[in-house]
Design brief:
3-stranded antiparallel beta sheet; 3 helices; PilP; 4-stranded antiparallel beta sheet; Putative Pilus assembly protein PilP; alpha+beta
């Protein structure tokens, strides 16, 4: 029983001693740490490099003279601008489903012949995929937004041909140019 009392007495004594030691560590101000920090940072100074000097750019002066202002709408619609036509580009309403030949380069379209249907003259053309189409004046043909302007049947003096007016982008301007799809001559292989 004495052993039991001896064992139970030393536990509170150890706890009391441990509490005293730990409370001594946390009491008071950490003056030694503050003094060390002050001494080690007294010679430290941030050295920020100076910003480079930026020279202002020269301001260009616009002297139009007789030229059009680059900000005017007249510059965009002028006939004299780059020698092009004042007409805007092709209409966005060309439906490739209604005009399947607008997906085919005009150079690969062959004229097979012409037919007279009532009073209308119709051209029969073949694409590069060997699909055959009937086209009339006003239909679209080729990737250059080409519109058929005339169909000429074959005569004794000339082969059949389809005249097309294309609207293409050249040197930044929309330009109209004439093109044609001709039937192979009688001597040529088909």
């Amino acid at each position: 029983m004495n052993r039991r009392i001896g064992r139970s007495c030393w536990r509170p004594a150890v706890l009391l001693a441990l509490t005293a030691v730990l409370s001594a560590c946390g009491s008071g101000e950490p003056e030694d740490i503050r003094a060390w920090m002050k001494e080690s940072t007294k010679d430290l100074k941030a050295k920020i490099p100076e910003l480079p000097k930026i020279n202002p750019l020269p301001v260009p002066v616009y002297e139009p003279g007789e030229a059009l202002s680059p900000f005017s709408i007249g510059k965009l619609t002028s006939d004299s601008a780059m020698g092009g036509s004042s007409k805007p580009g092709p209409k966005a309403g060309v439906n490739p489903d209604a005009h399947p030949l607008v997906r085919v380069p005009i150079e690969t379209i062959r004229l097979l012949g012409t037919l007279r249907v009532g009073k209308d003259l119709v051209a029969v053309v073949a694409s590069d995929r060997n699909a055959v189409y009937r086209v009339r004046v006003g239909d679209y043909l080729g990737q250059g937004y080409g519109r058929i302007t005339a169909i000429h049947p074959a005569t004794q003096d000339a082969d059949a041909e389809v005249l097309v007016k294309e609207t293409v982008m050249e040197k930044g301007m929309w330009v109209e140019r004439d093109n044609r799809v001709a039937a192979p001559s009688q001597g040529e292989k088909k």
